[in-house]
Amino acid sequence: MSSNSGTSDKGLDPNSIQIDRLAINSPPLESIDEPAILKELRRHLSPGAGAPPPSDGPTVNVDDTPALPVAAIKCMLHVINHTSSHTMMGLQAELSVAADTLVEFAASSPSDPILGGRSHIALRSGCDLFLRYVTRAFLELPDFDAVVAAIAERGERFARLSVTARDRIARLGAPFVHHGAQVMTHGYSRTVRALFSEAARCGARFEVVVPEGRPDGGGAKAAAAYSEVGVPVRVVLDSAVACAMENVDAVVVGAEGVVENGGVVNKIGTYNMAIAAHAMGVPFYVAAESYKFARMYPLNNGDLVKEMDMDPARMPLDFVDTTKISWNKLHPKEVSETEKSVTLPAEAVINLPDSVTVENHPCDYTPAKYITLLFTDLGVLTPSAVSDELIRLYH
Fold first, then answer.
1. What is the mean pLDDT of the chain?
2. Cα 195 to Cα 44: distance, rounded to the nearest angstrom
3. What is the crossing angle of helices 88-108 and 36-44, to 10°?
4. pLDDT in tens, 15-56
5. What distance in Å separates the CA atoms of residue 235 and residue 223, rounded to the nearest whole number?
6. Which end of the chain is more exposed for a tag (fewer CB within 10 A), N or C?
7. Which of 12, 17, 49, 13 is nearest to 30 (CA)?
8. Cis peptide bond prior to 215, omega within 30° of 0
9. What are the CA-CA distances from residue 264 to residues 21, 213, 366, 390 (Å)?
10. Across the strands, what pairs with 365?
């Protein structure tokens, strides 16, 4: 179904709409013409490739895959290990083409299951950092073989940084989660989960409040993950964020990217949450690894839409009235493993006329003025300190 499907459903059963669950959850078949670098990316982001994904969860379990920047670095290391170049200029050209291919794929295919709902911003940051190090190594080291060896060693060290960075952020951020607090978050973040786990381990007893996270239900899925660390979790409607904020003591969110002015790009709805927190005097914290620091400078969300090339045609969205669905019939536990589809009552599907445009942006930009502190592996930073850290990272 398309987002504007009001006049395109003549061939449907008038009493029900069949949705093929396997078609929704299964990743697309790789094209035989797909560049080798993309096949390498799929290899790093596809744990248990070949096994059918669970029908009641996301196609890709991001907890079982490396962070996108780390996967990008591993792909670039693959290029280095298989290069046919014997000069630095040739190697740099190969790496630049590989980086452009990775970023273009992630930017133009935001709904590809292999990305697990993650944007291309962090992937681009990883590629930029790595290419910057390649240039630096070329200027500092005497010969080609020494450069290749240094780059390979640095890349492996960067790949190991992912887990250690998350642990350091958890230790730095946990003291800001106080005993008896209500903490709101948005979407799912492995870094935020580690922070909550560390706070609970240190003895804090607190409740997590998370919006449902339309359109993919990311918040509801996150609630299940956060509850596994022994923390009470409450899910609220996206439209109830401001209402729920009245009783919240702190907000902690992850980030797809941290931009040069100290603002953050994250799952759509983060900006709304930050405005509500600011209006009610609730501290707003961001937990993000330094490899997500991006050389971007959006001034507003219009800039972000242009920067990310958010084409609505690539992000279709259908609407369903959930009050008209008998969930006991659709619950995954009630569906046999061999069943390939579930049935939605026709009256539950909201068909919009072609004249209606649907916007389904995956991310939004939250300006620095709404952010209290950032918990990073470089330390606890104010938004104004981000630009200094970016200079250190890239120079």
1. 78
2. 25
3. 60
4. 433 433 333 333 444 455 788 888 888 888 875 433 333 333
5. 7
6. C
7. 49
8. yes
9. 34, 18, 5, 14
10. 265
Residues 83, 144 contacting (CB under 8 angstroms): no
pLDDT in tens, 164-207: 889 999 999 999 999 999 999 999 999 999 999 999 999 999 99
Question: Sign of torsion, CA 105 111 114 116?
Answer: positive
216 phi, psi to nearest 5 deg: -100, 5
* Type of residue found at 68: L
Phi, psi (rounded to 5 degrees) for 346: -60, -35
Calculate Rg over the CA atoms of the chain: 22
Give the sign of the dihedral formed by CA 49, CA 53, CA 54, CA 59. positive
Judge whether residue 300 has pLDDT over 60. Answer: yes
Kindly report which listed range (52-61, 79-88, 310-319, 361-370) carries the lowest average pLDDT score: 52-61
Q: How many helices and strands (H and E) does the chain possess?
A: 13, 14
Length, in residues, of the chain:
395
Q: Is 104 exposed, middle or buried (0-12, 13-18, 19+ CB in 10 A)?
A: middle
**CB 39: neighbour CB atoms within 10 A?**
13
> What Cα–Cα distance (Å) separates residue 290 from each residue in 66, 187, 219, 239, 394?
15, 20, 24, 31, 12
Q: Which of 279, 292, 215, 216 is nearest to 242 (CA)?
A: 279
Tokens encoding 148: 């290749």
Q: What are phi and psi of 338, to 5 degrees?
A: -90, -10
CA distance 120 to 127: 11
- Residue pair 91/80 in contact (Cβ under 8 Å)? The answer is yes
